[in-house]
C-alpha cells in the first residue's frame, strides 16, 4: 500500500529573468517501512527532491502526499539527517536530542518519559555514554549518530537522509551502515536516502531510484533489490543477486547516463 505518493512533481528555480528547471515529472510511490535510495550524478537534483519531500521547498508542479495529507511545509513526521551534522555546538549531546524531543513531545510526555525517550534513542545509536559531551568533543561518525538519534527521537513517519555517511571514512561509514540496517530492522520505519555510493545503495535498500542527469532530471529507472534481511556485508560480497544489482546501477550511471560536465 502506498504511504508516500509523489505525483508528477516538477521543480524550477527562478532568479531574475532566468528560470532553471531542475526536476521534471517525478512519479514515485513508497510503501510504509520501505528503504529507498536515490542515486544520480552530482547536481541532478537529488537534494532538491529530498527537500521537496521534507517540505523545505515547494513543488512547482504536481504534489506530494504522505498518508493522505499533502506535504506543504516541514514537519516532525519527516525528519531530515544531513551530510554534515547539524548539532548545536553549545549544547551537549543529550540537550541536542532533548531540543527535538521537547518540541515534539513537550505536551504529550512527562519530563521523566522524555528523559527515558532521549536515552532510548541515544542507546539505539550507541551514544548514551557520551550524553554529556559537546559536539566538538566527539568524532564525525559520533556526531552523525547523534543526528540520527535526534531525528529518530521525533518518531518521524519518514526519515530523510541526505548523504548521511558521505563525510565519513570508509570504516566508520561501514559501521554506521550496519547500524542503520539494524535500526531499520528494529523500528521498521520508512527511509529515503540520497547516496553516491553504489554499494551502500545496494546493501541498504529495498529499491534504488536512479535519476537521469539534469537539467529537467527525472527518474530513469527504479531497481528492486531482492535480497533477504538481515543482510551481512561479507556474505553479500560474492552473492550473485547483490553483484547483479550493483552492475545494474553501475551500468545506469556510467553507460546509459554518463555524467557530462557542463561547459
Ligand atoms: N535554491 C536554489 N536556487 C537555484 N538553484 C538551485 C537551488 N537549489 C538547487 N539548485 C540547483 O538545482 C540543481 C540540483 O541541485 P541539487 O543540490 O538538488 O543536486 P544534487 O543531485 O543533490 O547534487 P549533489 O549530488 O552534488 O549534492 C543544481 O543545478 C543547483 O544549482
UniProtKB/TrEMBL annotation:
Subcellular location: Cell membrane
GO cellular component, one term: plasma membrane
MF terms in GO: ATP binding; ATP hydrolysis activity; nitrate transmembrane transporter activity
Keywords for this protein: ATP-binding, Cell membrane, Membrane, Nucleotide-binding, Transport
Membrane-protein topology: Peripheral membrane protein
Main subcellular location: membrane
SMART domains (alphabetical): AAA
A Pfam family of this chain: ABC_tran
Domain ABC transporter: 4-238
The organism's place on the tree of life at top rank: Bacteria
UniProt cross-references to PANTHER family, sorted A to Z: NITRATE ABC TRANSPORTER ATP-BINDING PROTEIN, TAURINE IMPORT ATP-BINDING PROTEIN-RELATED
Family, similarity comment: Belongs to the ABC transporter superfamily.
Protein name: Nitrate/nitrite transport system ATP-binding protein
Organism annotation: Devosia lucknowensis
Amino acid at each position: 500500500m502506498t504511504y508516500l505518493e509523489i505525483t508528477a512533481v516538477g521543480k524550477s528555480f527562478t532568479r531574475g529573468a532566468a528560470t532553471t528547471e531542475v526536476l521534471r515529472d517525478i512519479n514515485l510511490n513508497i510503501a510504509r517501512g520501505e528503504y529507498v535510495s536515490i542515486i544520480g550524478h552530482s547536481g541532478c537534483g537529488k537534494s532538491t527532491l529530498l527537500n521537496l519531500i521534507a517540505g523545505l521547498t515547494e513543488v512547482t508542479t504536481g504534489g506530494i502526499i504522505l498518508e493522505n495529507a499533502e506535504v506543504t511545509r516541514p514537519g516532525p513526521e519527516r525528519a531530515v539527517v544531513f551530510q554534515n551534522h547539524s548539532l548545536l555546538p553549545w549544547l551537549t549531546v543529550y540537550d541536542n536530542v532533548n531540543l527535538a524531543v521537547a518540541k515534539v513531545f513537550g505536551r504529550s510526555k512527562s519530563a521523566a518519559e522524555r528523559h527515558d525517550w532521549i536515552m532510548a534513542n541515544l542507546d539505539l545509536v550507541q551514544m548514551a555514554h557520551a550524553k554529556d559531551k559537546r559536539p566538538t568533543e566527539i568524532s564525525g561518525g559520533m556526531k552523525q549518530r547523534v543526528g540520527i538519534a535526534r531525528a529518530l527521537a521525533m518518531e518521524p513517519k519518514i526519515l530523510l537522509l541526505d548523504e548521511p555517511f558521505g563525510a565519513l571514512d570508509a570504516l566508520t561509514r561501514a559501521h554506521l551502515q550496519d547500524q542503520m540496517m539494524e535500526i531499520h530492522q528494529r523500528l521498521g520505519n520508512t527511509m529515503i536516502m540520497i547516496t553516491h555510493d553504489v554499494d551502500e545503495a545496494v546493501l541498504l535498500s529495498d529499491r534504488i531510484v536512479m535519476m537521469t542527469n539534469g537539467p529537467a532530471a527525472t527518474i530513469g529507472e527504479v531497481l528492486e533489490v531482492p535480497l533477504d534481511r538481515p543482510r551481512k556485508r561479507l556474505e553479500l560480497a560474492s552473492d550473485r543477486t547483490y553483484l547483479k544489482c550493483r552492475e545494474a546501477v553501475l551500468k545506469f550511471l556510467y553507460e546509459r547516463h554518463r555524467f557530462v560536465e557542463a561547459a
